[in-house]
Amino acid sequence: MTKDTKNPPIDRVDGRLKVTGGANYFADFELPNMAYCVLVGSEVGRGTITSLDTKKAQGAPGVLGVFTHQNMPPIPGWDAPVGGEADGPAPKPKREETYRILSSPKILFDGQPIAIVVADSFERATYAASLVKATYNKQAARTELEKHLSEGVAPKGADGGNYLRGKADAYQSAPVRLEANYTIPIEVHNPMELHGILAHWTASDKLMIYAKTQGVNATQQAMAQAFKLDPKNIHVHTEFMGGGFGMGLRTWPQETAVVAVARKIGRPLKLVVTRSQMFTLVGHRPYTVQTINMGADTNGKLVGLAHAATAETASYEDFTEATVNMTKFMYDCPNVSTRYRIVRLDRSVPIWMRGPGEATGAFALESAMDEMAHKLNLDPIEFRLRNYTETDPEHNRPYSSKNLKEAYQRGADAIGWSNRKNEPGSQREGDWLIGYGMSTGVFSAFRWEASARALLKADSSLTIQSAVTDIGPGTGTALTIIAHNVLGVPLNQIKVEYGDTSLPKAPTQGGSAIVSAVGSAVFDACTAVKKQLTELAIKEGGSLAGRQADELIIADGVLSVEKEPRKKVALSELMRANNLTVIDKSADSKGGSEQSKYSMYSFSVHFVQVRVNPLTGVVRVSKAVSVADSGRIVSPKTAASQMIGGVAGGIGMALTEEASIDHRFGRFVNNNLGDYHVAVHADVPAIETIMIDKPDPIINPMGAKGMGEIALIGFAGAVANAVFNATGQRVRDLPITPDKLLRKLT
Amino acid sequence: MNQFQYTRVTTPKAAVSAISTGNGSYFLAGGTNLIDLMKREVVVPERLIDINKLPLATIEKTATGLRIGAMAKNSAVAESELVKKYVPLLTMALNAGASAQLRNMATVGGNMMQRTRCAYFYDTAMPCNKRSPVQAGADKGQTNGPVGCGAIGGINRMHAIFGASTKCIAVHPSDMCIALAALDATVNVSGPKGDRTIPFGDFHRLPGDTPQKDNTLLPGELIMSVDIPTNKFADHSHYLKVRDRASYAFALVSVGVAVDMKRDTIQDIRLAMGGVAHKPWRLIEAEQFLRGKSATEANFKQAAMLAMNGAKGYGENDFKLTLAPNSIIDALKTATKTA
Question: Is residue A403 situated within a structural domain?
Fold first, then answer.
């Protein structure tokens, strides 16, 4: 691969399959003799089941079994925390008391499964589930974070939730000071595809699973642990996923339960949860309260910065995320402290949701930066530039690459930042107020361990294999381009096989890490193929005998001497001449010592123009420009789609998304897609995406860094900042709905 | 979903006769709300009488105005040239409602009959006086969940500020009905005791002590059509819907305005609000005040103030006490703009 060459903007390789219904998602699989199950959820948020009447359900037509804490088949690995896992980036339960589905009458959260009803059709299982009746010894559910902020506990870990550089209270003595609180509500991933699993015991110790998981290897490990099986006996298949956004980053307890029940009934068993169960059984972005203290001198130089965050978690498991991390390294500031706490509530456990904690933290930090810029009467970009850092102040080491200044400039040019007026509330179009806002996003650029295999056949077609799941970002497309760049095989002769544990092991898709991890493994496997081809060509008696390997280039299925293009051999010919039907190379790939010498991050800058109706408080995003500085862009079209998706999600986060709980009952009141407002097309303007597209010379052979998270991180702050610019009013509690803005405007 | 009988009828007479033969029978039109209610077991019919084959989908000009058949689809009404020409307010209101897919299924009669979207009504684990006690069709003595009003003292951001009761503060969710209320429509119904006409303003009701009753239809009555009288409002109509997202969301507050302007003077006007009450909320006092006045912001403000007489917030929805009058002003400004 030539690093200096931009990559071709090819169409998504699985696009046709997806739009024609040819792509099979887990629930599309139908097996002979398959049974269906439906979960019955608790209607109280805390308490104990006092009676459970399953008789009617058991007698309903087609019912094969009703499983409760009284008759749940054993899970041999029950001693190990069910739902945690040994592999991948999923959180491990960190507390003694973990939640084990259907193991006790104790209710830990509203919606907790109290029964699994199995029938010969989904409809019959659904009906029978409605006949299960429970009574409870009810207790008041503690679900409101703001009432329990003082109960925050420090997470276990290296820094115990505290970080300090310089003096913690330096901001107090700065001439210009800001203290502000920001809140983020519960957000729910809500991909279109519902979560679930299809479990099939093909022998007493052999298991086939079709699941909605972001990592087939992680699910394989979790099930191996739960059922004390050799992982080799567990086959997990998840080729396509109808959106994940983080909710598939772990194996959820109900999946394990379905596997156990499938064994008990001796039939393949499918679970597809309901939309309302998506709010309680597969995680969410945790409600988080943050405080920023910031001090600057009159020249706009940061003096001190303190960022504290408190987030909800479950009573039975500690979930933590990197909410305050960005504050540690984003700006050049000598005195920085952060504090992170979690509060254990009667709620189901959260999980990372796109951008995860960094998106939550960036909303607070980047709103505060805007607030401080206003206090200093500085342009918000100028304020950021005065505190720009070329090296990572947290770890005192260089960035592997950082082109954020260029990103600020290009984004500003594209949105028409020069039309912005620093004086808030000073621009109108008819009755609408106009404002501009911007915000920075940043996320770690990882390089995890991954494996891949490349098979070049004599007809010069190439197959790439890796167990990685494509949750939608275009992984298959990116891997195709990487292979094409190394081996010169025409794009339409490359096939990528993925999403199956029979393929070389790969990490869970998450953390914007897959192009870097799996892409590097594909790069290495293809490089090994290329090496063999080259050796065959230049060996004695070979078609290009006597040449040196570094003289050769490979393109369009032909190996040739770069400076004498007529000296060439077709790959197919070369293989036939050597009686080879296939060249088969595998690679295990991981980063080296550079991982500790450099700080590796992807950066983004989001710009928006908003229109605000001062009478109704309605906010519309009228323009959006998102700039990504994430190294070499491997697949330009799918990368742009990632950014567009991030902006759509960001508009939801900023303006519409909030899962509301009635705390008197500890129960959601808007757990459906009609009332939980994800942004719709009418909320999303045309989005301009800009890629800096400069290779990172350190991170991996492609020079590519991830983009899934940075597409969202910071966006909500840009909207809040634009709303302030339009109105002079600062909304610090997301989402910015008309009621909140109206209270401030009138 | 529980088992139920299903009957298809092809004439209004057969429909009325079928629904009168037993308790627990419901008409099924577009099904965009009823099917959801059945899935959630909020409504548990014993029998559905499918009226989709009734020949009631005509939209026609009559001597006194427009007549719209009860089974006309919301999308067909919105796209009708007659409706666009004579009652553009209705087109605007329809297009502000639901989504294109839902409008393609939903009928005019069904739209009028849709239930509130109050979350407590839909969750049988939550208290609701509208849903419980005993629904027609439920086992005798069985209620669909606890009684009481969950919204009072609960999540009531979407709820009523006018005409609510201690039993219920839910709002009627329709956009279409706001336009029909503003335009003085009448509803033609047919029932076991014959045909009658109900003024639109009397069709829906306030909750009082019987919030389970959304409207004044008598048992067995079928909506046949809606009449909209001829008016002079076509040039100055506006439907403003303020909502949490730009499409597919119910109104926080909506305002339907229809004005007959002569230069800057308001000759005649109709005003109705949605998202504020258990029924479409006509602003009679504000209309009376504005008649004969010039279209100025000061007059709009005065009218909006009058419209707010008797308004009451319940906590989370207090913002509507500001949003409602502001929306009236905003809608009046837009409607009275001269082309």
Answer: yes
- pLDDT tens-place string over residues A665-710: 999 999 999 999 999 999 999 999 999 999 999 999 999 999 999 9
Distance, CA of A87 to CA of A113 (rounded, Å) = 26
Give the orientation angle of helix A738-745 with respect to helix B320-336, to 10 degrees.
Answer: 90
| A563: containing domain | 448-590
| A686 and A664 housed in the same domain | yes
3-state helix, strand, coil in chain A (%, to 5): 30, 30, 45
Q: Which chain B residues contact residue A618 at CB under 8 A?
A: 242
* Domains (range + CATH), chain B: 5-53 (3.30.43.10), 237-336 (3.30.390.50)
Q: Which residue from B246, B252, B327 is facing A682, i.e. has the nearest CB?
A: B246
| Distance (Å, whole) CA B67 – CA A348 | 53
- Rounded to a whole number of angstroms, the distance from the CA of B239 to the nearest CA of chain A is 14
Supply the residues of A annotated as catalytic: 709
In the A/B pair of chains, how many CB contacts fall below 8 A?
A: 86
Q: Mean pLDDT throughout A730-745? A: 97
C-alpha span between B335 and B315 (Å, rounded): 31
Is the bond preceding residue A735 a cis peptide, omega within 30 degrees? Answer: yes
- Rounded to an integer, what distance in angstroms lies between the CA atom of residue A218 and that of residue A144? 33
Asked whether residue A162 carries a pLDDT value surpassing 50, the answer given is yes
This model of the complex carries an ipTM of: 0.96
Tens digits of residue pLDDT in A508-529? 999 999 999 999 999 999 999 9
Q: What is the largest CA-CA distance in chain B?
A: 62
Structure tokens that stand for B169 in this block? 């503060």
Say if the Cβ atoms of B155 and A43 lie within 8 Å: no
How many domains does one find in chain A? 3
**Token pair listed for A67:** 């499983």
3-state secondary structure (DSSP) of residue B267: strand
- B contact test, residue of A124, A190, A432, A616 with most B CBs within 10 A: A616
pLDDT in tens, A383-408: 999 999 999 999 999 999 999 999 99
Q: How far apart are CA B175 and CA B78, in angstroms?
A: 12
Query: Which residues are registered as beta bridge partners of A458?
Result: none
Rounded to the nearest integer, the mean pLDDT of chain B is 95
pLDDT of residue A498: 97
CA nearest to A665 within chain B: B126
